[in-house]
Amino acid sequence: QNKPKSRPNPYLLLGPPVPLPARLQTRPQLALQVMMLQVPGQPIILGCRVEGTPPVRITWRKNGMELLESTHSTLLANGSLMIHHFQLDGGGSPSDEGDYECVAQNRFGLVVSRKARIQAATVCIFHTHVPILYQPPVGEEGGVARFQCQIHGLPKPLITWEKNRVPIDTDDERYTLLPKGVLQITGLRAEDSGVFHCVASNIASVRVSHGARLTVSGSGSGAYKEPTILVGPENLTLTVHQTAVLECVATGNPRPIVSWSRLDGRPIGVEGIQVLGTGNLIISDVTVQHSGVYVCAANRPGTRVRRTAQGRLVVQAPAEFVQHPQSISRPAGTTAMFTCQAQGEPPPHVTWLKNGQVLGPGGHVRLKNNNSTLTISGIGPEDEAIYQCVAENSAGSSQASARLTVLWAEGLPGPPLNVQAVSVSSTEVRVSWNEPLVNTKEIIGYVLHIRKAADPPELEYQEALSKSTFQHLLSDLEPSTAYSFYIKAYTPRGASSASAPVLASTLGEAPAPPPLSVRVLGSSSLQLLWEPWPRLAQHEGGFKLLYRPASRASFTGPILLPATVSSYNLSQLDPTAVYEVKLLAYNQHGEGNATVRFVSLRGASERTALSPPCDCRKEEATNQTSTTGIVIGIHIGVTCIIFCVLFLLFGQRGRVLLCKDVENQLSPPQGARSPRDPGILALNGAGRGERAQLGRDKKRVDAKELEQLFPPAGAQDPGAPVLCEETQFSRLPLEGFSLLEEMMSEAKAPCPGPAATLPPQDAGPGLLSEGQAPRPSTAPTAQPACSGQ
């Protein structure tokens, strides 16, 4: 009853072989079937129908191994396999059960049929010898009785029922026989009493169960009974085109109404749907769309009182092809591609065979898109074969084949000979070769194919070389990396076959200096940041970190860090010291050059308050202030203050406060500096209003803070002036700068004498650029103090 419908796929012919007319094909065509049950001791013939260009050689495989002829089995002239006496294990002889394949081969290639599984038919065995009665042995008239016969056998046995040793009348609509061996009796009557037997039969045997007695009493009491589902639907897994039987037996008084629905709300439909008995749902010729959860509901008539039960139906579909592979012809040295797309439920797994042997990825063979695409690059004569796509899932399998023909032009040269690759340095390899033995006159050049040994073939690249070149130096390679090389000779008519590939690895080298940035976390802690180098771990490498106060001779460290680490924190540092930090990378070839940074922690908390935190990764270059740059910044600031004092001595009411481009003088020129960098010092003055009027953006810092950060040697008073004579540095040229003029109120006294003190913070400034005179209304005529400095 559940036999699948016939399908146009290839099948295995069972029984006497049927001769077929000869047809000329480019490759063998096979026809095979999938499953067979056989009675032990009986002969069996497996037929293999083959169509192809003769001569065609046919062999058989059992469980993947070639089956040799013996007295137990014979290969007939038409290719069929005859097993004289089908047998199971015993007597020292192997069992004939297993998977059989027919193999056909001619001069174009080899193909393998689908597998045919042979199993021995088994006798019917009852799980319980007495049918199960899902009802008290004494039932009431008008009630429901259900018997189930649990039995196993191959093939699945056919079950019938007897009452008092007489077959049950199946024309009685009150008796419902389900395919799974269930007997339902609705509307019980007194004449239904008796002893029931189930009879199971298949090709191997016939079995009769013990009897189960049913007694039907008089009419019921008529009392109200809640709806009850005696037996609900079971979970089923079927294959397409089979029949699904969802059982639902309900009792109650009054008799409940049974209805069906899907849990997902989709309609069940009407095509192929019928109700058997009083509530059993039958779905004929199931499809994948029938999969789902089905709900049986028993409703009390006229009310909303109901009971439900549910079961899941899973419908599987054998693998079938949406796109078959196509036979192709390609010139030697090019790429061939086969595409094979299959569908099924569950999704099928795709396997490729080359002349009957499983083909896996590797070398110049690639499988992509869940094995649905087979790519063969750089094809040669050894790739000419029949390729089969086998799609298989738990519901069945399908196979399709295609042929690859490799085209060769006459008179092509042979492959280049004696190809050698020698490492020259960490980035260079020299490849040499000799010209082919034959057909060398028409060679117009060579093509060298290069790729990393660990990369797939599609990532290779080529370099074209002249016909007179027999060695080539490859550069710009990666250190400590294995490469694969092969060469082809080209003529106007095509390319030669590829030479044998050779491998060579570039030499190793010590790693380059790592990029390092430093972030001040507090007055006594630093955070070091750099990029991780995964390649270091592949070469037994890592990082070494060393640090010291700039005034000391010895470093602390080295601290060894793995190649995957990208940061490290230094704590418990001296807040008054300038630190020198070194970071270097190493591998098995040695240590690379170190990256050095100088960092000052003096006044870190005050600078943090004055300036918001910086993004040290974005402003990496600005944190690289050296001790020399800081001292030069002090020199520039003090010089400007002295010029301001001289300017005041000549009667100018404004005061010089800020020099242009001080930020660029604080450290060696390494790129743009951020105005928010706490590592750069600026002199803040009192200029406000006039600076805003002229649109000039100047940075301001208290000179007392400058003296606190960098006190001069021998100073007795922290607030004492810093004289230019005490700081004599001329390592960096002093660039042009601007002068800020501070306008003092009349109530303020002029700055006294030559003392290098800070001007008042509350005076209104005026901007005096180089060569510009002050406004007559606010100040006497004065000469520019900083001109030409």
UniProtKB/TrEMBL annotation:
Source domain of life: Eukaryota
GO-annotated cellular components: membrane
Bias-annotated ranges (Polar residues): 778-789
Short name of any one Pfam family annotated for the protein: Ig_3
Residue stretches making up the Fibronectin type-III domain: 415-509, 512-607
SUPFAM superfamilies per record: Fibronectin type III (SSF49265), Immunoglobulin (SSF48726)
Regions crossing the membrane: 630-650
Record-linked InterPro entries: FN3_dom, FN3_sf, Ig-like_dom, Ig-like_dom_sf, Ig-like_fold, Ig_I-set, Ig_sub, Ig_sub2
Cellular localisation: Membrane
Membrane protein topology class: Single-pass membrane protein
Domain Ig-like: residue ranges: 28-119, 131-209, 227-310, 318-405
Keyword terms: Disulfide bond, Glycoprotein, Immunoglobulin domain, Membrane, Repeat, Signal, Transmembrane, Transmembrane helix
Entry similarity comment: Belongs to the immunoglobulin superfamily. DCC family.
Name by which UniProt lists this protein: Immunoglobulin superfamily DCC subclass member 3
Organism, scientific name: Canis lupus familiaris (Dog)
